[in-house]
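Need residues for this backbone.
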Protein backbone atom coordinates (compact mmCIF):
# COMPACT_ATOMS: atom_id res chain seq x y z
CA UNK A 1 0.00 0.00 0.00
CA UNK A 2 2.85 2.35 0.84
CA UNK A 3 4.38 2.10 -2.64
CA UNK A 4 0.95 2.30 -4.22
CA UNK A 5 0.07 5.53 -2.40
CA UNK A 6 3.38 7.08 -3.46
CA UNK A 7 2.88 6.01 -7.08
CA UNK A 8 -0.61 7.51 -7.20
CA UNK A 9 0.59 10.68 -5.47
CA UNK A 10 3.43 11.17 -7.94
CA UNK A 11 1.08 10.71 -10.87
CA UNK A 12 -1.08 13.50 -9.49
CA UNK A 13 2.03 15.65 -9.00
CA UNK A 14 2.92 15.13 -12.66
CA UNK A 15 -0.56 16.37 -13.53
CA UNK A 16 -0.05 19.32 -11.13
CA UNK A 17 -3.07 18.20 -9.13
CA UNK A 18 -1.37 19.06 -5.87
CA UNK A 19 -4.28 18.58 -3.49
CA UNK A 20 -4.92 15.02 -4.67
CA UNK A 21 -1.19 14.30 -4.62
CA UNK A 22 -1.06 15.56 -1.03
CA UNK A 23 -3.96 13.29 -0.06
CA UNK A 24 -2.09 10.16 -1.18
CA UNK A 25 1.29 11.25 0.16
CA UNK A 26 -0.31 11.76 3.57
CA UNK A 27 -1.71 8.23 3.36
CA UNK A 28 1.81 6.98 2.56
CA UNK A 29 3.27 9.01 5.43
CA UNK A 30 0.86 7.39 7.85
CA UNK A 31 2.18 3.95 6.92
CA UNK A 32 4.89 2.61 9.29
CA UNK A 33 7.69 3.17 6.79
CA UNK A 34 6.43 6.61 5.75
CA UNK A 35 7.92 8.57 8.62
CA UNK A 36 11.43 7.43 7.69
CA UNK A 37 11.19 7.96 3.94
CA UNK A 38 13.10 11.16 3.16
CA UNK A 39 11.95 11.45 -0.45
CA UNK A 40 8.32 11.19 0.63
CA UNK A 41 8.77 13.80 3.38
CA UNK A 42 10.43 16.17 0.89
CA UNK A 43 7.47 15.68 -1.45
CA UNK A 44 5.13 16.55 1.42
CA UNK A 45 7.15 19.66 2.23
CA UNK A 46 7.03 20.72 -1.43
CA UNK A 47 3.27 20.24 -1.60
CA UNK A 48 2.61 22.10 1.65
CA UNK A 49 4.67 24.94 0.25
CA UNK A 50 2.65 24.85 -2.99
CA UNK A 51 -0.65 25.25 -1.11
CA UNK A 52 0.87 27.99 1.10
CA UNK A 53 0.84 25.95 4.30
CA UNK A 54 4.31 27.13 5.20
CA UNK A 55 4.24 25.98 8.82
CA UNK A 56 3.73 22.36 7.76
CA UNK A 57 6.26 22.75 4.96
CA UNK A 58 8.84 23.93 7.49
CA UNK A 59 7.92 21.07 9.84
CA UNK A 60 8.54 18.54 7.05
CA UNK A 61 11.88 20.07 6.07
CA UNK A 62 12.98 19.96 9.70
CA UNK A 63 11.85 16.34 9.91
CA UNK A 64 14.14 15.56 6.97
CA UNK A 65 17.07 17.23 8.73
CA UNK A 66 16.38 15.15 11.86
CA UNK A 67 16.70 12.06 9.69
CA UNK A 68 19.66 13.34 7.65
CA UNK A 69 21.44 16.52 8.70
CA UNK A 70 23.36 16.58 5.41
CA UNK A 71 20.28 16.92 3.21
CA UNK A 72 20.90 20.02 1.08
CA UNK A 73 17.36 20.12 -0.33
CA UNK A 74 15.81 20.47 3.13
CA UNK A 75 18.13 23.35 4.07
CA UNK A 76 17.37 25.03 0.74
CA UNK A 77 13.63 24.58 1.31
CA UNK A 78 13.91 26.26 4.72
CA UNK A 79 15.89 29.06 3.12
CA UNK A 80 13.11 29.68 0.60
CA UNK A 81 10.48 29.82 3.36
CA UNK A 82 12.44 32.44 5.30
CA UNK A 83 13.29 34.28 2.09
CA UNK A 84 9.61 34.58 1.19
CA UNK A 85 9.02 36.17 4.61
CA UNK A 86 11.86 38.62 3.85
CA UNK A 87 13.87 37.19 6.74
CA UNK A 88 16.99 37.33 4.62
CA UNK A 89 19.61 36.80 7.31
CA UNK A 90 17.95 33.56 8.41
CA UNK A 91 17.49 32.51 4.78
CA UNK A 92 21.19 33.10 4.13
CA UNK A 93 22.19 30.70 6.90
CA UNK A 94 20.04 27.93 5.42
CA UNK A 95 21.28 28.54 1.87
CA UNK A 96 24.84 28.31 3.19
CA UNK A 97 24.03 25.01 4.90
CA UNK A 98 22.60 23.70 1.62
CA UNK A 99 25.81 24.67 -0.18
CA UNK A 100 27.97 23.14 2.56
CA UNK A 101 26.31 19.84 1.79
CA UNK A 102 26.18 20.26 -1.98
CA UNK A 103 28.69 22.71 -3.42
CA UNK A 104 27.08 22.43 -6.87
CA UNK A 105 23.64 23.53 -5.71
CA UNK A 106 22.94 26.17 -8.34
CA UNK A 107 19.62 27.41 -6.95
CA UNK A 108 21.05 27.76 -3.44
CA UNK A 109 23.85 29.99 -4.76
CA UNK A 110 21.32 31.98 -6.80
CA UNK A 111 18.97 32.73 -3.93
CA UNK A 112 21.88 33.30 -1.56
CA UNK A 113 23.09 35.97 -3.97
CA UNK A 114 19.61 37.48 -4.15
CA UNK A 115 19.27 37.55 -0.34
CA UNK A 116 22.60 39.36 -0.04
CA UNK A 117 21.44 41.80 -2.71
CA UNK A 118 18.23 42.48 -0.77
CA UNK A 119 20.37 43.28 2.28
CA UNK A 120 22.54 45.64 0.23
CA UNK A 121 25.63 43.43 0.37
CA UNK A 122 26.55 43.78 -3.30
CA UNK A 123 29.98 42.19 -2.92
CA UNK A 124 28.57 38.89 -1.62
CA UNK A 125 25.74 39.04 -4.15
CA UNK A 126 28.24 39.35 -7.00
CA UNK A 127 30.40 36.56 -5.58
CA UNK A 128 27.49 34.13 -5.40
CA UNK A 129 25.97 34.99 -8.77
CA UNK A 130 29.39 34.25 -10.23
CA UNK A 131 29.31 30.87 -8.48
CA UNK A 132 26.02 30.21 -10.28
CA UNK A 133 27.69 31.04 -13.59
CA UNK A 134 30.59 28.68 -12.86
CA UNK A 135 28.02 25.89 -12.61
CA UNK A 136 25.77 27.13 -15.41
CA UNK A 137 27.12 29.94 -17.63
CA UNK A 138 23.75 30.08 -19.40
CA UNK A 139 21.72 31.03 -16.33
CA UNK A 140 19.65 33.91 -17.67
CA UNK A 141 18.90 35.69 -14.42
CA UNK A 142 22.34 35.30 -12.85
CA UNK A 143 23.73 37.20 -15.85
CA UNK A 144 20.90 39.74 -15.86
CA UNK A 145 21.04 40.34 -12.10
CA UNK A 146 24.80 40.80 -12.22
CA UNK A 147 24.22 43.37 -14.93
CA UNK A 148 21.75 45.24 -12.73
CA UNK A 149 24.07 45.16 -9.71
CA UNK A 150 27.02 46.51 -11.69
CA UNK A 151 24.73 49.24 -13.03
CA UNK A 152 23.76 50.17 -9.46
CA UNK A 153 27.48 50.33 -8.62
CA UNK A 154 28.03 52.72 -11.54
CA UNK A 155 29.92 50.33 -13.81
CA UNK A 156 27.61 50.56 -16.81
CA UNK A 157 30.09 49.01 -19.25
CA UNK A 158 30.40 45.85 -17.15
CA UNK A 159 26.65 45.90 -16.59
CA UNK A 160 26.16 45.91 -20.36
CA UNK A 161 28.55 42.97 -20.79
CA UNK A 162 26.48 40.76 -18.47
CA UNK A 163 23.19 41.93 -19.97
CA UNK A 164 24.52 41.09 -23.44
CA UNK A 165 25.25 37.57 -22.17
CA UNK A 166 21.67 37.37 -20.91
CA UNK A 167 20.46 38.55 -24.32
CA UNK A 168 22.43 35.76 -26.00
CA UNK A 169 20.56 33.28 -23.80
CA UNK A 170 17.11 34.78 -24.43
CA UNK A 171 16.98 37.36 -27.21
CA UNK A 172 13.25 38.00 -26.79
CA UNK A 173 12.78 38.53 -23.07
CA UNK A 174 11.20 41.95 -22.62
CA UNK A 175 13.01 42.76 -19.35
CA UNK A 176 16.40 41.92 -20.83
CA UNK A 177 15.60 44.08 -23.88
CA UNK A 178 14.44 46.88 -21.56
CA UNK A 179 17.66 46.75 -19.55
CA UNK A 180 19.69 46.78 -22.76
CA UNK A 181 17.85 49.99 -23.59
CA UNK A 182 18.63 51.50 -20.18
CA UNK A 183 22.34 50.63 -20.29
CA UNK A 184 22.86 51.75 -23.89
CA UNK A 185 21.12 55.04 -23.11
CA UNK A 186 23.51 55.63 -20.20
CA UNK A 187 26.48 54.91 -22.46
CA UNK A 188 25.20 57.36 -25.08
CA UNK A 189 24.23 54.68 -27.63
CA UNK A 190 20.91 56.37 -28.30
CA UNK A 191 19.90 54.61 -31.52
CA UNK A 192 20.59 51.22 -29.95
CA UNK A 193 18.68 52.21 -26.81
CA UNK A 194 15.66 53.19 -28.89
CA UNK A 195 15.76 49.90 -30.79
CA UNK A 196 15.85 47.91 -27.58
CA UNK A 197 12.91 49.80 -26.08
CA UNK A 198 10.92 49.16 -29.27
CA UNK A 199 11.79 45.47 -29.16
CA UNK A 200 10.83 45.26 -25.50
CA UNK A 201 7.42 46.74 -26.34
CA UNK A 202 6.98 44.29 -29.23
CA UNK A 203 7.67 41.36 -26.91
CA UNK A 204 5.48 42.64 -24.08
CA UNK A 205 3.19 45.64 -24.71
CA UNK A 206 1.99 45.44 -21.10
CA UNK A 207 5.27 46.55 -19.54
CA UNK A 208 4.72 50.31 -19.08
CA UNK A 209 8.31 51.30 -18.26
CA UNK A 210 9.46 50.55 -21.80
CA UNK A 211 7.05 53.18 -23.14
CA UNK A 212 8.08 55.68 -20.49
CA UNK A 213 11.81 55.38 -21.09
CA UNK A 214 11.30 55.41 -24.84
CA UNK A 215 9.14 58.54 -24.63
CA UNK A 216 11.59 60.32 -22.31
CA UNK A 217 14.28 59.95 -24.98
CA UNK A 218 12.13 62.13 -27.27
CA UNK A 219 11.34 64.57 -24.51
CA UNK A 220 15.07 65.07 -24.03
CA UNK A 221 15.32 65.86 -27.76
CA UNK A 222 12.40 68.30 -27.27
CA UNK A 223 10.29 66.31 -29.70
CA UNK A 224 7.30 66.47 -27.39
CA UNK A 225 4.72 65.36 -29.94
CA UNK A 226 6.59 62.12 -30.59
CA UNK A 227 6.99 61.61 -26.84
CA UNK A 228 3.21 61.99 -26.46
CA UNK A 229 2.58 59.51 -29.29
CA UNK A 230 4.69 56.90 -27.51
CA UNK A 231 3.01 57.50 -24.15
CA UNK A 232 -0.38 57.29 -25.89
CA UNK A 233 0.54 53.80 -27.10
CA UNK A 234 1.60 52.88 -23.57
CA UNK A 235 -1.67 54.12 -22.05
CA UNK A 236 -3.67 52.23 -24.65
CA UNK A 237 -2.13 48.96 -23.39
CA UNK A 238 -1.71 49.97 -19.71
CA UNK A 239 -4.76 52.03 -18.80
CA UNK A 240 -4.27 51.75 -15.02
CA UNK A 241 -0.69 53.04 -14.77
CA UNK A 242 -0.92 56.48 -13.17
CA UNK A 243 2.68 57.45 -13.90
CA UNK A 244 2.05 57.25 -17.66
CA UNK A 245 -0.74 59.85 -17.40
CA UNK A 246 1.40 62.00 -15.13
CA UNK A 247 4.30 62.00 -17.55
CA UNK A 248 2.02 62.71 -20.48
CA UNK A 249 0.74 65.70 -18.52
CA UNK A 250 4.32 66.98 -18.29
CA UNK A 251 4.72 66.55 -22.05
CA UNK A 252 1.46 68.42 -22.70
CA UNK A 253 2.70 71.31 -20.57
CA UNK A 254 5.79 71.54 -22.79
CA UNK A 255 3.55 72.22 -25.82
CA UNK A 256 1.17 74.45 -23.81
CA UNK A 257 -1.81 72.09 -23.88
CA UNK A 258 -2.65 72.86 -20.27
CA UNK A 259 -6.25 71.60 -20.18
CA UNK A 260 -5.13 68.20 -21.45
CA UNK A 261 -2.29 68.25 -18.92
CA UNK A 262 -4.75 68.90 -16.09
CA UNK A 263 -6.96 66.02 -17.21
CA UNK A 264 -3.98 63.69 -17.06
CA UNK A 265 -2.86 64.96 -13.66
CA UNK A 266 -6.32 64.32 -12.23
CA UNK A 267 -6.40 60.87 -13.84
CA UNK A 268 -3.00 59.99 -12.35
CA UNK A 269 -4.25 61.01 -8.88
CA UNK A 270 -7.40 58.93 -9.37
CA UNK A 271 -5.22 55.90 -10.08
CA UNK A 272 -2.56 56.60 -7.44
CA UNK A 273 -2.97 59.19 -4.68
CA UNK A 274 0.84 59.43 -4.42
CA UNK A 275 0.68 62.02 -7.20
CA UNK A 276 -1.59 64.33 -5.18
CA UNK A 277 1.33 65.37 -2.97
CA UNK A 278 4.04 64.86 -5.56
CA UNK A 279 2.52 67.34 -8.01
CA UNK A 280 2.63 70.15 -5.42
CA UNK A 281 6.45 70.13 -5.47
CA UNK A 282 7.09 69.11 -9.08
CA UNK A 283 8.79 71.97 -10.95
CA UNK A 284 7.63 70.51 -14.26
CA UNK A 285 4.12 71.67 -13.34
CA UNK A 286 5.07 75.29 -12.58
CA UNK A 287 3.49 76.56 -15.80
CA UNK A 288 0.10 75.14 -14.92
CA UNK A 289 0.33 75.70 -11.15
CA UNK A 290 0.67 79.48 -11.55
CA UNK A 291 -2.53 79.92 -13.55
CA UNK A 292 -5.40 81.38 -11.55
CA UNK A 293 -8.01 78.92 -12.79
CA UNK A 294 -5.95 75.94 -11.54
CA UNK A 295 -4.93 77.33 -8.12
CA UNK A 296 -7.79 75.64 -6.28
CA UNK A 297 -6.73 72.24 -7.59
CA UNK A 298 -3.07 72.67 -6.68
CA UNK A 299 -3.69 74.26 -3.29
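Answer:
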Amino acid sequence: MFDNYISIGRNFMTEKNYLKALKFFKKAYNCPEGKEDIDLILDLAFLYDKIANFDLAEKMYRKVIELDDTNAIAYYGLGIIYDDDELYEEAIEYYKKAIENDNKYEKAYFFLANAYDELGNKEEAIKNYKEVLKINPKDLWANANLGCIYDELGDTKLALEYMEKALEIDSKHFRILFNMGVFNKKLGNLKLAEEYYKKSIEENPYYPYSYLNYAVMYREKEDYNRAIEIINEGILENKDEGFLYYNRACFYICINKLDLALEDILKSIELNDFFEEYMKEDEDLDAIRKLEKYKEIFG
